[in-house]
Amino acid sequence: MNNLTEHNIKLASLRFLKEYYKFRPRSGETKISADMRGEGGIVADGYLTFPKEDKVNFIATLEATSFSTKDEVRFRLKREKLTWDCAALAFSSMAILMFVSHNLGFYAALRLGIFISLLLFGFSVAFFFGLFWLVLARMRRYRYIHATEQFKEYYADEQWVAIGEDVFPSYSDRYFLELQRQCVYYGFGLLVVNEALKPRMLITPARQQIFVGSRRLISFISLNELGRRVAQSRYASWAKRFTSPRLDEAKRWLTPYQSTFKHHRRRYAHQMTLISVSMISMLALFIGELNRKPVRELAQAAYQAEMEAKAKTNKRESFGFDVDTTSVQPFNKAVKPYIVMGPDATNDIIISAQSEGSLTYYDCSRFSMRSVTYIVQDTLVKTAGMAVRRIYELKAAGIHANALWLGCFNSNDTRYVVFAGLLHTSRREAENSSRAFEVIMAEAKMENQLQIRTLNPKK
């Protein structure tokens, strides 16, 4: 297919475009030109213009590609953008994972140690990064095609990509399918020129502008006219706009298909911000986990400095103390302390279940109540032994319970009330506790007899 040179593809496509637009309303002649140079180093392989009825010029540009320049229409990954996006998503996902783990009570820094935690952190970030890379690499956002990206740099009413039919091995080639998708998405036309130099239109340009207000209108000039003007010294400074690209675009002249357009020269401020916020959040969670250590290790110098600072504000301990029982020696040795009193010692008692499973017995004098109190009553029994038995039944179901002798409040009532939880100062608080205990009893398949009981102080 020696006939399909880039020059021949340009000429054949321009002839097709002139025929394609011949019925468009106009107020003047159509002009076509090949190899136009635009401001800032923009190159248009084909250029067609004619004045519309409102005297405004209609402009169509063409990007022609042959087999020798096929890299212009074959996509390549925007690895820099993809790397920043994957890093931002990986760190964000890791921060969310650490937040969930922290709220569930799994503190990796304490359970696994700092070294293992850091290794796990690095592995997790790398896993998320690789996962997002595999998922996102197929998106249009990260597939760069030189021909379509150049069209985004300047304004034209309609823009066309023209390729020789030997550029892609088949219409099912993944590079051709991506070019086709981008032309449809961005509103560019697509022509395929065969060996006989007959263009075939695959996609028409979008009549509605896709990039409204986002592209600049630039001037184009043919290479022949540009050379003639450059030869005249008075045009030297003017010609720099067309012949000398800006410093940040110089790379494109050395590597023609490298992404040097402004659309791809971003600073990724959003990704950097997201990574920074995620890192700060994870560092705060990590420090918070370390501060939950049951024993705080201090260097000797730091411990001494802390103790000296506290000594300046601490109050001196009292040399005297008060006791509330006569069982303390050397007083009345015949009286037993409350802690060894049992259910048979007296009816005048309060039974309190301790966290380690033992019971403590007190008399009513230890129960000083000045206002109304509420309890979640489980049952009423006649003897202290029955109350103890019920306390242990509730304990087996996971409910902490206590018992009170009602004679402490009413001299006519000698029963014991077994109640779940603690004493409450408000009825609403007692009702909330009752609902929580009802759930536990339902799970343990126990009969629910709970009710709110009011205890009034004895007058």
Walkthrough of the structure:
With 459 residues, the chain is of the alpha+beta class. The protein folds into 3 domains: 6-74 and 145-259, no CATH class; 77-142 and 261-290; 338-455, no CATH class. Helices cover 37% and strands 19% of the residues. It has 13 helices and 15 strands. The chain has a 7-stranded mixed sheet. A 6-stranded antiparallel sheet has the order 11-10-13-14-12-15. Helix 2 (79-103) crosses helix 4 and helix 2 (79-103) runs parallel beside helix 10. The N and C termini lie far apart (114 Å). Residues 245-265 and 335-341 have low confidence and may be disordered.
Order of strands in the sheet with most strands:
8-7-6-3-2-1-9
Q: Which geometry do the CA atoms define?
A: elongated
SSE pattern, N- to C-terminal: HEEEEHHHEHEHEEEHHHHHEEEHEEHE
Outline the low-pLDDT stretches. 245-265, 335-341
Termini separation:
114 Å
Sheet bearing the most strands, described? 7 strands, mixed
Individual helix count: 13
User: How many extended strands?
Assistant: 15
Helix content: 25-40%
Total separate domains: 3
Mean pLDDT, nearest integer? 78
Please state the CA-atom Rg, rounded to the nearest Å.
Answer: 43 Å
Structural class: alpha+beta
How much β-strand is present in the residues? 15-25%
